[in-house]
Amino acid sequence: MPIKIQVLNNILEMNDSYAAENRSIFEANNSFVMNMMSSPGSGKTTLLERTLERLDPAKVAIIEGDMQTTKDAERLERFGSQIVQISTGNACHLDGKMVHDALADLDLSDIRLLVIENVGNLVCPAEFRMGEDAKVVLLSVTEGEDKPLKYPLMFREAAVCIFNKIDLLPHLDFSLEEARENARQINPQLKFMSISCKTGEGLDQWTDWLQTNMNG
Ligand SMILES: Nc1nc2c(ncn2[C@@H]2O[C@H](COP(=O)(O)OP(=O)(O)O)[C@@H](O)[C@H]2O)c(=O)[nH]1
Ligand SMILES: [Mg+2]
Q1: Measured between alpha carbons, how far is 46 from 43 in angstroms, rounded to an integer?
Q2: Which band of pLDDT confidence, cut at 50, 70 and 90, is reported for residue 1?
Q3: Does the CB atom of residue 51 touch ligand 1 within 6 A?
Q4: Domain 3-215, CATH homologous superfamily name and number
Q5: Ligand 2 center to 36 CA (angstroms)
Q6: Distance between CA atoms of 140 and 40, rounded to whole angstroms?
Q7: Whose CA is nearest to atom 25 of ligand 1?
Q8: Phi, psi of 126 (to 5 degrees)
Q9: Helix (H, G, I), strand (E, B), or coil: what is residue 111?
Q10: pTM greater than 0.90
């Protein structure tokens, strides 16, 4: 086997063993764990703000992944949920070990929902499992309908695809139907939601989905 491929396999195998350990910690605490992924600026942190306004913050914990700065964690601090920041430096994604290390700083015993906000990027985050129950991909309607076809792995791995910023649709040529069709080609099982973090449209469906999983 070529050496480069061997090395990559070893990295992914090591990642998977951390992911399995994380998984057993999540199960032992009965925490539903969601890995939130998107391009930078699609609205992950804003959706978390809207989510924390609607759920009991004592039951929610957050792991914030960013290459630089603690800005997102600072935006969420006011809700009072447990938050751990992971600064990835040059790494473009979170991985199983980073999440495993972050778990040392969280008490999951009362946590029904752990949200991991991944580094903003439609490519690498999809490749690294962290032991989560579900991957959620956000796509802002400003990004274009073709993104599921251009970045298929992320859409294949996701359980839910959220189209955000639908308040902007009147100003754009974006077709929700075309975007859904493109994503369905990649992943026929994908569940879709269309939301606006600005107007609140669609957020009930989102929090219903979360609550069903938190109680499950
Ligand atoms: N118009 C509009 N702007 C939004 C919406 N959601 C987020 N934004 C804005 O998009 C920008 C990036 O949001 P942020 O949550 O930081 O994205 P992240 O990088 O994915 O965490 C911010 O200026 C938000 O106010 C939305 O539903 N509608
Ligand atoms: Mg963010």
Answers
A1: 5
A2: low
A3: no
A4: P-loop containing nucleotide triphosphate hydrolases (3.40.50.300)
A5: 10
A6: 10
A7: 46
A8: -70, -20
A9: coil
A10: yes
- pLDDT, one tens digit per residue, over 30-54 is 999 999 999 999 999 999 999 999 9
Pocket test for ligand 1, best of 51, 64, 169, 197 (most atoms within 8 A of CB): 197
Beta-bridge mates of residue 137: 37, 161
44 Cα to the center of ligand 1, angstroms: 7
Residue 125 Cβ inside 6 Å of ligand 1? The answer reads no
Q: Where are the alpha helices (DSSP H) in 30-151?
A: 44-54, 71-76, 96-103, 147-150
- Positive or negative, the CA dihedral 94, 99, 100, 105 is positive
- Ligand 1 in contact with 168 (CB < 6 A)? yes
Q: Please report how the helices 203-215 and 44-54 are oriented relative to each other, as an axis angle in degrees rounded to 10.
A: 70
- Written as six digits, the tokens of 17 are 């063993």
- Which ligand is located closest to the Cα atom of residue 68? 2
Give me ligand 2 centre to Cα 171, in Å. Answer: 24
